[in-house]
Specification:
Strand order of the largest sheet: 2-1-3-4-5
Structural class: alpha/beta
Number of helices: 14
Radius of gyration: 29 Å
Strand content: 15-25%
Length: 456
């Protein structure tokens, strides 16, 4: 009879030896590694029954090991150990699926009892195939419903549903801007095919309250759709009772879905994915409130700091460029002084609308503070930034503000820009240069100035 295998994970040699000696005395096969990265590599080979892992380690920590173990087809039981316990960390570990939680120092008999309990649980599961299947299904659903990043959630949902079916292809889509479906988690087909298919399936989702199977003639494949479609399963996604997208899985070319289709399992997993999607949307809405300027609806200074760091990493990784534009309304104080702050606020909102029409959807707009705005132009060099900056300046100069009031007015703006990494190679340097370029233009006003023009 095969001995149960225990994987010990701890960066402290003393505790690795202690655990190994205690557990080998009870007749277990014990393997010990010194890091979370080594543990993740070992788990990929399978055959581990129980993982005993320290919570805090360099690199991948114990929670990362736990999450990887939970995603396995036949997951081992995981016990987390720490010398720095908090109620929050214990709750998080148990929510993520840990069997139990030990605090150093602990009673050796307590450890032995806990390992025996874990192994007994696995034995009972192995003796009851149906129960084992149900628990795995529950664990998969639990993992899906807990993911708060929409793209990662939907990609994982597609993978999970296809695995449950056994063979197929699929993708998910959602409406990021209320018009165009964004496709994620594409598996077994081209992204362009998935995008075309998503647009064609939108009418099929109207009024759909549950899973829908389209078979044979119901699958009205149009131009550009993937070949060989005979069955398509639609799983609608909603947020606050509004349809926001769907998960789509279909048969492979030349073969249909396996029979019988595990419909109940698919329905359960789809419901968990839909629950996760609802939670992720609410979380995203909350994040947007944190990072959004209340007056204009643009992003705020706080989010500028976040997105600049992300864009710098992306730019450095792929050898790209991006530019930052600063826009300051000329003599804006006179609007507040002459017409009042309500008129000033309305003018700022109208300026934000002008800026949105002046940049691409992939670019980001911010209210930096007061009457100063910022635009981040992705994959845009200094020459491209100059073109956009001039477009913004001209659009403000030509606009008529407060048209619906008794005192319509005209404004101008001074614009400055800088490019990463050509003008600056760090976040603060880029902000300072774009801001200085704009203030350099304030000597004249209603002009565009690049960082390269700043007089030393």
């Amino acid at each position: 009879m095969k001995k149960p295998t225990i994987l010990v994970v701890d960066d402290d040699l003393f505790f690795r030896r202690l655990y190994s000696e205690l557990l080998r005395e009870d007749g277990y096969q014990v393997e010990a590694v010194a890091s979370g990265d080594e543990a993740l590599a070992r788990l990929q080979d399978g055959g581990v029954d129980v993982v005993l892992t320290d919570m805090v380690m360099p690199g991948q920590d114990g929670l990362a090991v736990l999450r990887r173990a939970r995603d396995m087809e036949n997951p081992p039981e995981v016990v987390l150990v720490t010398g720095h316990a908090t109620l929050e960390s214990a709750i998080q570990a148990l929510k993520d699926g840990a069997r139990d939680y030990l605090v150093k120092p602990f009673n050796p008999e307590g450890l032995r009892h806990l390992v025996r309990t874990c192994l007994e649980q696995r034995r009972l599961l192995d003796e009851n195939t149906l129960l084992k299947s149900q628990i795995r299904l529950f664990q998969k659903g639990q993992s899906l419903s807990a993911i708060l990043e929409i793209d990662r959630l939907l990609s994982q949902a597609v993978t999970t549903l296809l695995h449950e079916v056994g063979a197929g292809r699929g993708f998910a889509f959602f409406f990021a801007d209320h018009r165009t479906p964004k496709v994620v988690g594409v598996s077994g087909l081209e992204e362009e095919e998935a995008t075309i298919m998503a647009r064609g399936l939108v009418p099929q989702l109207k009024g759909l309250s549950g899973v829908r199977l389209l078979r044979g003639g119901e699958v009205s494949a149009g131009p550009g759709w993937p070949a060989g479609l005979s069955t398509v399963a639609l799983f609608p996604l909603r947020c606050q009772k509004r349809l926001k997208g769907a998960i789509v899985i279909s048969n492979l070319p030349g073969q249909d879905f396996p029979h019988p289709l595990p419909y109940d399992n698919l329905l359960f997993l789809a419901e968990q994915a839909a629950l996760g999607f609802e939670n992720a949307c609410r979380y995203q809405d909350a994040q947007e409130l944190i990072y959004t300027d209340d007056l204009t609806g643009l992003y705020n200074y706080r989010y500028l700091q976040v997105i600049l760091e992300q864009e710098i990493r992306r730019t450095e990784r792929y050898g790209l460029e991006f530019s930052l534009i600063f826009i300051d309304l000329d003599y804006f104080k006179e609007v507040n002084d002459r017409y009042g702050h309500l008129a000033g606020s309305q003018t700022l909102r109208e300026t934000a609308r002008l800026l949105r029409r002046s940049v691409r959807d992939v670019d980001a707009l911010f209210r930096y503070g007061g009457d100063e705005f910022t635009a981040m132009l992705v994959e845009t060099d200094s020459q491209g930034a100059a073109v956009v900056a001039e477009r913004i300046r001209r659009s403000i100069e030509k606009a008529s503000f407060l048209q619906d009031t008794d005192h319509p007015l005209r404004l101008t703006a001074t614009v400055g820009y800088a490019t990463f990494p050509g003008h600056a190679n760090d976040k603060q340097g880029l902000i300072d240069l774009a801001d200085r370029a704009m203030y350099y233009g304030k000597r004249i006003r209603n002009v565009v100035r690049g960082a390269w023009e700043i007089a030393e």
